[in-house]
Amino acid sequence: MSSTQAYAITAEAVAAEAERAGGDYSKVDVSKTLVLDDLQLREMGPKDVKLKVLAVSAEHNIEHAALADTVNIAQSRGGKIYPGNSAVGEVIEVGSEVLDFAPGDVVLTHCNGEPDEFGYPLRIWAYDKPDSIGWYSREAVVGAWQLVKAPLSSGLSLWEIAALPLRAPTAYHLYRRALGIYRLKVSREHKSVLNVLSFGGGVGELFLMLAQAEGHKAFFCAGSAERRQALEERGIVGIDQRAFNRFKEPADIKAFNKEVKRLTDGEGMHLVCDMLRGPVFEAGLAVSARCGVNVSAGWQLSQQVSYNSTIMSVKQVTIDHTHYETVVGCGAATELYGSVFKPTIHKEIYSFADLPRCFQEMHENTQTGIPIVRVAEEMPDSVKNLL
Ligand SMILES: NC(=O)c1ccc[n+]([C@@H]2O[C@H](COP(=O)([O-])OP(=O)(O)OC[C@H]3O[C@@H](n4cnc5c(N)ncnc54)[C@H](OP(=O)(O)O)[C@@H]3O)[C@@H](O)[C@H]2O)c1
Fold it and tell me: Domains in the chain and their CATH numbers?
């Protein structure tokens, strides 16, 4: 067995930080809950692959783990988790039965930890999958089934590729579900071009890139001016969420609805992606077009939603809940790197030592794009032109 350096979140650190912050999530210093640890890697089995981790993306579920605002995942997993469910790595060793990968290959990890009978995840790797070890580490041992070859010729930089393994499959799944449901109700014969809205965040941005690539009209409602501008440069219409007071009062939602009606010639949004819930949920429903679909795989601001069932029935609106993609779907989403998915990256590429600060800045919502951490100091020749 070999050992490596890996970040851990302990229930003890989460409790200590919650106590120091007096139960106020906004005062929690997320960086204090992430500690660099010595991790014993498991023995390689015949179907396993050993990776040198090159770069990782910061994912929002680490904030949920550090705040324990949805479930106290570190506690329920026995007091400690090794987080990190999105990585780009170089294969350095393969088990005797591994045929699809060889040393030197650059690969992505997906985080579908346990597919159900239809391929959808019952558990997420490095989150609620028991005994799963995440990839905020120098090295990792994974099953070959957890890997997808990295599309190094996609035109994306290594950092842009590193932004996508978790967010792109999620957006892909949300989009194919939302569109599929809408098309069950309204055929292309009746309506060709749809109005598609998403709220802030990396997943939402990618959802809109899929819609735009198919010729639909895409609208991005976010607070971050930098992120709105990045999408506007690609022809996606920006709507400043702060101009509507982040939907705190009914009057804010009314004003937002009026603006959406103006932007869409009175039609409203046919597809809405809402990964945030909380006040965003009501705003997303209010601007739904007839037969619209509101889709989500997130609960960043709230786990609970309520709505007027009568109004949604009369408008024929569908509210759909998804989770991460199937393993096959992760492969399909990866085919779209560079041609459709062109992620916006935060201006700083964090060092491995600065990973805790990266998460605190994510918590403070000050990043200008998807945050990336460089793990390997020495990169393989195959990616040197992508740095
Ligand atoms: N189930 C799954 O498979 C899955 C997969 C990926 C993500 N998720 C979940 O989905 C959520 C979003 O993920 P992501 O990766 O897209 O997040 P992200 O890239 O970290 O973006 C989060 C966004 O939230 C917005 N935000 C922050 N505070 C807000 C507030 N008070 N009101 C409204 N918006 C606020 C910010 O946008 P602005 O400030 O610009 O508005 C920010 O860009 C997270 O909860 C994550 O855990 C679930």
Answer: 3-166+343-386 (3.90.180.10), 169-321 (3.40.50.720)
